[in-house]
Amino acid sequence: MSQTVEADAPAGAGTPSVRRPSPVAVGMAAASVTLVIVGFAASVGAFPESWNLGLADPIDRTRRWLINNQTSHWLYSVLLNPVTDLADAGIRRLEAILRWFPWYVYPVFCGLGLWRVRSRVAGALGFCGVVVIGMVELWQQGFATLALMGVAVFLSLLAGIPLGIAAWRNDRFASVLRPTLDAMQTMPGFVYLIPFVLLFGIGRVPALIATVIFALPPVVRLTDIGLRNVPHPMVEASEMFGATERQTLRLVQIPAARPAILAGVNQTTMLAMSMVVIAAFIGSGGLGQDVLRAMRDIDVGEASEAGIAIVIMAIILDRFSRGVATLGERGRGTIAVGAADLQAIRWLAVAASLVAVVGGLVGHNEFPEWLHWHFSPFVNDITAWARDNLYDIGSSGIGTGPLSDFITLYMVTPLRELLSSQIPWPAMIGLGVLAGLMARGVTLGLGIGIALFGIGWLGMWELSMDTLAQTVVAVVATLAISVPLGIWASHSDRFQKLADPVLDFLQTIPSFVLLVPVITLFHVGRIPGIIASVVYALPSAVHYTDLGLRRVPAEVHEAATSFGATRGQRLRRVELPLAAPELMVAVNQVIMLVLAMVVIAGLVGGGGLGLETVNALRRSDAVGRGFEAGIAIVLLAGILDRLTRGVADRLRPPAAT
Asked: For a pLDDT cut of 90, what percent of the chain falls above it?
């Protein structure tokens, strides 16, 4: 917030004090307006190339030095190589353990586990899902993905839970940790890979480290939040019975915060899953490698098989971790489970354990060949038909091709030209500073100005404007679809129940996989990335819109109705204004998700910063340029994140803020 002063009021006057902007805010606003006027008056074009800091060359030289000294320098022999060997040994050991068990243990375990924590239907679907992974001959790739993800989640929890406890104990530490976690969550997953490729090269170890850092924030935040929300009377009762501070934490506070901590475990697991798939770019192997290879070969059938295997694994992990997190709240799962059922489950678990041990000793580790079945030929046939018949339907001007051309010619290209060339760079910086001043005050305005200058100094101005144009188009399209759906869900419980499974499914799919069906219909270019971004961000926006409208008090509805407001008037003039803070949070989440997905869209020719990042992971001579693009992505994401958060705080009532 900008600093303010109160105007002097006559003594005894009942009028509230008038808040005036500080001189610093006034000066910054004047400077920003001057930048806008001068920029347009002087017809300044793109950011001057002569101001480029040229970070790419030093980074490339550092990369070459690291490669040449991997066997001799103490940095590797003392620190990096031991870390690499230990991490790689842990992944290999876990993968060997997973492969030791007979194949039939996994469908039985998933079926019984999901039956216990969710429902019989979930158990049956889990059993069938694991069998499908084996049927498409992705059994060993699934183990590789699961081993890397398992070690990453273990390390994330090992570091995240103590950090959350430390943040809960020390407000000063929490105030330092919070912006760090914000930056970690704002940064798209692809960007994490570049610095670790610089240090460790390609392989599973840099993928593991990047995954741990990417997946860490949720468990830290939710551990802190869970401990802060433990009822104080519980702590006082424990202290009255003579428990020490450590005993109270271990026996009272952590058990009371268990649902929040387990929710953090769920989020960390899903982030690790999505990052492990993305890490296929740097040679992590597993299912992501199959998707990447199939996409490079334009083999949609093979990519679909690997993509569906990833989705099945992600859904099973999500449902299982969610079920464990809410098991205490729901008693014994989503359905009533009697004593006889529990006894049967226990006996089945014991029998499955014995069979697993015997099977592991005897063999039966490989999924049987007689169960193999591939649906990729059918998918390729459908893809060929869609390519030949849906891309351009006759001379009617409809189809995926004309739609792609329309979005490109009349939305993306004009907006990209407007941002990159028609609006001068000083005017863009001035407008950004003004937006920050209005959203949150001097600090945000100054930060946005520095961040925009930083993007220019990195030589990424035009590419950043290209990425921003794609992001804006995708965000507008997402909100145009999601807000009406969220309104419908908030007014219809039946529609909400029908929509929730679909939205949960879309939220569970790793972002990488969404590109597979889209490139089938729209080929390569910017449009597939934008459409995949819309699908990826849609569930979050629908959920937040629904949540915000459902939080409007019933008394407000009744008051508006009693004054004769129609349903449409009540929605426009009462519900949407009161739900504005949650709607801005929805906008914030959509922007972050779309920006992350637009970067991934560089795989299919999306252009902008994403393409530079992908090139850095593909070519060793482009690491420096990719590092600059990664920093620009972080700066752009930070600007959009802080702006939307600032607007949301402005719209929030003072008591809520």
From this structure: 6
